[in-house]
Design goal:
By secondary structure, the protein is mainly β. It has one domain. It is 10% helix and 42% strand. It contains 2 helices and 13 strands, in the order E-E-H-E-E-E-E-E-H-E-E-E-E-E-E. The protein has helices at residues 13-20, 102-112, and strands at residues 2-3, 9-10, 35-42, 50-58, 61-70, 81-87, 91-97, 121-122, 135-141, 150-155, 158-163, 177-183, 186-195. It has a 6-stranded antiparallel β-sheet with strand order 2-6-7-5-4-3. Strand 3 and strand 4 form a beta hairpin. The chain is globular, with a radius of gyration of 16 Å.
Length: 196
């Protein structure tokens, strides 16, 4: 379960993502202010790293931005740093593009293999919170070939592919385990990520 604090964030998640997106090669050119569409979370079994992915509309295009929130810098990952934020409960957080985070890679591999699932949201007292708008699940093995706006990384012994532009053109390589998602207005599952 993901514990959601009623916290003040400086900058906010959307502000942080907004600053980072224009430098990404898969982000639409001339992007204005991004609009948050929804998010989903995974649980770190060790409870150390926050794993949350955002769906953001930029210049009419829906993009997928998985993030890893850490209480300290991740050695060797400076090029994947999205930025830092101050969390009024947890203190300073280092926010990374989760596509290259080893905890995200392991958890994503477990989810696509149906050994884990999307995190349920609870408040600090353990009371359930409303389910997120974005629902994700294992999508089964891919038939390939790999296609679409995807970033890949080999992390913690896992090859991870993160679909960045959710326009329906992405495909995972043959045999990869897939993560698919739905959200309001998108009832047919869409490929979000894969592992192999």
């Amino acid at each position: 379960m993901a514990v959601i604090h009623q916290a003040q964030l400086v900058p906010t998640k959307l502000e942080l993502v907004s600053r980072w997106l224009p430098a990404q090669p898969w982000c639409p050119a001339g992007a204005g202010e991004p609009e948050a569409v929804g998010a989903y979370r995974f649980d770190d079994p060790d409870g150390e790293v926050g794993l949350e992915a955002h769906l953001v509309r930029v210049a009419g295009v829906l993009v997928h931005v998985p993030l890893a929130y850490r209480g300290a810098e991740l050695p060797g990952a400076a090029e994947r740093l999205v930025g830092t934020m101050e969390h009024s409960v947890l203190g300073r957080r280092w926010v990374y593009d989760a596509g290259a985070d080893p905890v995200h890679a392991r958890v994503l591999a477990d989810v696509v293999a149906a050994r884990a699932q999307q995190a349920a949201l609870v408040d600090p007292a353990g009371a359930p919170l409303p389910a997120p708008l974005v629902r994700v699940a294992a999508g089964g093995p891919a038939t390939g070939p790999e296609a679409g706006a995807v970033t890949t990384a080999a992390v913690a012994g896992v090859r991870v592919g993160v679909v960045r532009v959710l326009d329906g053109t992405a495909a995972a390589p043959v045999g990869a385990g897939t993560l698919v998602g739905t959200w309001p207005g998108q009832e047919s599952p869409v490929l979000l990520a894969w592992t192999s």
